[in-house]
User: What shape does this take?
Amino acid sequence: MKYFKIMILAFAAIVLCSLPAQAFIDKYSVNRSDLPEKAQTFLNEHFPKAKVSMVKTDRHLLKKADYDVKLTNGTKIEFSSKGDWTSVDCNKREVPSALILKKIRTYVKKNFPDAIVVKVDKKSLNFEIELNNGVELKFDRLGTFKSMKTDD
Assistant: This one.
C-alpha cells in the first residue's frame, strides 16, 4: 500500500510539473496576424510580395516570446517580442538596403564591390553582416568597421 501511495504521488508531481512547462511550448503558424504589429509593418514594407510560410513563436522561461518568420522565398527573419527585427537572412539574395546603415553600405561597396549583403544581425552593441562571398563583417552600432572573418 505504501508503494502504491508513493507511485500516485510521483505521478501527480510529474503531471503538475509538466502543466506549467506547456506554457513555454513553441507555437507554429502561417498567419502574419500572429506577429506584433511592428513586425507586420516591417514585412509589408520590406517584403511586400513575399508570402509567409511559417511563423514560430519562441516562448522562453524568463523573457517574453520572440518570433522566427520564414518566407516562401527562403528568407528568414527574427523579431523580438516587441516586433523589432534582430536578424534577416536572405540566403543568396540581397538584404533590402534600407535595413543596413548607409555607412555600412558604403564600406561594403568600397571594399567588396562585387559582393552583396545576404545576412544582417542586429545585436545590442553591433551589426554583423554576411556577404555572398562568405566574408563576415562586424560593425559597431554607428556603422564603424570593427572586424572581418572569412570562410577559410
About this structure: The chain has two domains: 23-89, 92-152. Residues 23-89 form a domain with the Inhibitor of vertebrate lysozyme, Ivy fold (CATH 3.40.1420.30). The first strand starts at residue 27 and ends at 29. The CA atoms of residues 77 and 88 lie 5 Å apart.
